[in-house]
């Protein structure tokens, strides 16, 4: 079963809009949630992460909103730029090094 | 700092042949991970080493796949008798091994394997 679900395979927004990528999970043992960004031909790279004790984490234009009770989280990308076009993976981890990835959301930002 | 190095970047094999994929982790990192990426399945965990010792291989197909880490500077993933369904991008990642789940994983560019 898919332990980490990303509701959209793809998302298209216009430059300057806020892109919202959604994610949900099943395992209550997950307590660390990194988001990875992947450009074509490259490996994923850590973008931003949140622990389950927090409900919000902000880093520049990127913000994670986390709802522990509902077991979901979202990544908001403010003022989206064409250079943000990439695939975004939501991931989750219990208190180990093993990380479970979602299937990814391909974001396209149109100029 | 060269990052995680994976070789070859692309490999084409015939059905039934063996494929060996190489990974050089970031110097000083003690944890190495292997993943398989496909359009359908996304990123699948395969196996994980810490200080060269195998820790978790729960994602490895039990037949035909094996991974080793003979020294701290490289790890290999070997696929015997390759099948078309093995076609995927194989990603290696390393992390400093600081402990706990906030140990950031740094990924290599991947090896794209195509089995004809």
Question: What brief labels describe this structure?
Answer:
heterodimer, A: 111 residues, mainly beta, 0% helix, globular, B: 116 residues, seven-stranded mixed β-sheet, four-stranded antiparallel β-sheet
Instruction: Please tell me how large the radius of gyration of chain A is.
Output: 13 Å
Radius of gyration of chain B equals 13 Å
Segments of chain A where pLDDT lies below 50 for 5+ residues? none
Please state the oligomeric state of the protein chains shown: heterodimer
Helix fraction of chain A by DSSP (H/I, runs of at least 4): under 10%
Mean pLDDT of chain A: 94
Distance between the termini of chain A: 37 Å
Q: Which CATH-level-2 architecture of chain A? A: Sandwich
By secondary-structure content and strand pairing, the structural class of chain A works out as: mainly beta
Low-confidence stretches of chain B: none
Q: What portion of residues of chain B belong to β-strands?
A: over 45%
Helix fraction bin of chain B: under 10%
Query: Between the first and last Cα atoms of chain B, what is the distance in angstroms?
Result: 36 Å
Number of helices of chain A: 0
Sheet with most strands of chain B: 7 strands, mixed
Number of strands of chain B: 11
- Please tell me the overall pLDDT of chain B: 93
Annotation field: number of helices of chain B: 0
């Amino acid at each position: 079963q898919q332990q980490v679900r990303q509701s959209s395979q793809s998302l298209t927004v216009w430059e300057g809009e806020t892109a919202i990528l959604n994610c949900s999970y099943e395992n209550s043992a997950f307590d660390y949630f990194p988001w990875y960004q992947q450009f074509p031909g490259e490996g994923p790279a850590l973008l931003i992460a949140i622990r389950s004790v927090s409900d919000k984490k902000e880093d520049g234009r990127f913000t994670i909103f986390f709802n522990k009770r509902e077991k979901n989280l979202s990544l908001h990308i403010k003022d989206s730029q064409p250079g943000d076009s990439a695939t975004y993976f939501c991931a989750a981890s219990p208190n180990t090094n093993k990380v479970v990835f979602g299937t990814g959301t391909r974001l396209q930002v149109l100029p | 700092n060269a990052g995680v190095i994976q070789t070859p970047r692309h490999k084409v094999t015939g059905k039934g042949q063996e494929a060996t994929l190489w990974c050089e982790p970031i110097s000083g990192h003690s944890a190495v991970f292997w993943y398989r990426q496909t359009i359908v399945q996304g990123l699948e965990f395969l196996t994980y080493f810490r200080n060269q010792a195998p820790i978790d291989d729960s994602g490895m197909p039990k037949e035909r796949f094996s991974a080793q880490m003979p020294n701290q500077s490289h790890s290999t993933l070997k696929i015997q008798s390759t099948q078309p369904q093995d076609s995927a991008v194989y990603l290696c990642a390393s992390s400093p091994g600081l402990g706990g789940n906030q140990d950031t994983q740094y990924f290599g560019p991947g090896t794209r394997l195509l089995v004809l």
